[in-house]
Structures are given as C-alpha cells and as structure tokens.
Amino acid sequence: MFKLKNLLQDIFSSIKHVPKKAYTNGLIVITGCIVLAVLYIGVNGFFGSRPSAVCALEDNQEEEAIASENRSLEDEEIMTQLDLEIAQYKQYSAQYEKDDIVVARMAAPMKEPENSSNERELHTASFKAKEPDSKLVSISAKDYEAITRIVEAEATNEDLIGKILIANVVLNRVKSSNFPNNIYDVVHQKINGKAQFSPIDDGRYYKLKVTNSTKKAVESAFQGEDYSQGSLFFVARSLASSKAVSWFDNNLTKVLKHGVHEFFK
Questions:
Q1: Which terminus, N or C, of the chain has the lesser number of Cβ atoms within 10 Å?
Q2: What is the pTM of this model?
C-alpha cells in the first residue's frame, strides 16, 4: 500500500513537470487511443455476432422446412387412412344393404300359385314302393288318407313297428289277387256287409286325428320296411270275439305276434 502511494506520487510529480503543450498532446493521443479501442471492440462485436445470427436464422428456416415436410407427410398419411376407412365403410354399407335385401326377400311371404290348394288335395303324398312286382305305382291323396287313418285306428297305442305292420298288411292285400288293387278299396272292403277292418264299422276311422308317428310308419312301409312276412290278416285276441278268434286259428296260419296283434296268412 505504501509503495503504491509512492508510485502514484511520483507519477503525479512527473506529470506536473511535463510542459503544458506536451500534456495536451498526450491527452489527445490517449483519448484517440481510447476511441479507436471502443470502435474496434464495437465493430468486432457486431460482425462477430452477425454470423451467429445468420446461422440461427438458417437453422430456424431449415427446422421450419423439416417440420413442414413432416406435417405434409402426416397429413398425407391421415388422408390415406381416411380414404381407406371411407372405402371400407362403403364396402360394408353395400354388404349390409345386400344382406338386408336378402333378409327382406326371405321374410317376404311367397305368393301361392293358383290351383295350389287343388294340387295339394290331389297330391298330398306320392310314395313309391320298392318292390319291383308291386301293383302300386304311386299313391293318391285318397289312398294316403285311407292307409294313414286305418293304421292310426288299428294301432293307436302301438309302437312304430306295430304301426308299420298294419301298413304292411294293407299293402300286402293290394298286391294280392284276392283283394282290391288299390288302398282305398282294400281299407273300405266289405264282405257280406261287414267291413274287413272294424274301425270302419264302429266309426273310429272317421273321428281320429292322424299322428306324426303314424305318418312316419306309413312312409317307412312305402320305402320297403316290411316285418309282416307276407301276412294278410291280423287280430287283437284280447279285443276280438271268441268266434272271430276261432276263425283265425282254424283257417289261417299264424306268422308272428307283436304288441296286441297276431298276424296270419
């Protein structure tokens, strides 16, 4: 601290002994140096920052260009996805519309052709017998009703085979030269004023309702299912009179028994 004070005193003393003109000139020189230094620093600072600003501007422009390109790609992808979704929607809409049309057509009631009721009455069933030597070529509605009713009446509580057996006997009679050659006449045949099948005489034939199991049994018989072994007669021994049973035993040959019925030929 003491040395610094002495140095300043020496400098001040030296300045005091400098001539006034030299002192003025020195101040001018020093001032000029200071001004030049300030200008130099200012100019270098301005031009030194300019490249940075330019670079920053160029960087910003490049970033904006990249961002714009990215946005364009994103927009293009969005539009492409949107187009695909629209196309799928149109495809699904067309399919749904097609399905609705099909459903509507299926749900719409079909117009019944003219004379269809008459045809149903004339052709209620058309079963063909498998036996090549059968006299049956086809069956009319009249014959179909006759055989289904007599099977239902004679075998009401019998199983499927029991019902098929009754149908077999009727068809065997049709094929036999000793009986009528059609189902209706076989079912309704009378000898000496007495029906061959008791439900015709007692009226059960006309009052019953034919069940699905009976229809199935008749159909099976026409398709060739036969358990009768050629039987032309049958009797329910527990329900018939002793006179009738005696006639069966004395004049016919017993073939088999199923359920309540015994079958003869």
A1: N
A2: 0.50
Other C-beta atoms lying within 10 Å of the C-beta of residue 151: 29
Neighbour-count burial of 129, counting CB atoms closer than 10 A to its CB (0-12 exposed, 13-18 middle, 19+ buried): buried
Question: Given the structure tokens 């014959």, which residue do they identify?
Answer: 143
Backbone angles phi, psi at 254, to 5 degrees: -75, 135
pLDDT in tens, 72-130: 666 666 566 656 666 665 665 555 455 444 333 433 344 444 444 443 443 333 344 34
Task: Output the six-digit token pair for 143.
Answer: 């014959």
Interatomic CA distance for residues 265 and 168, integer angstroms:
12
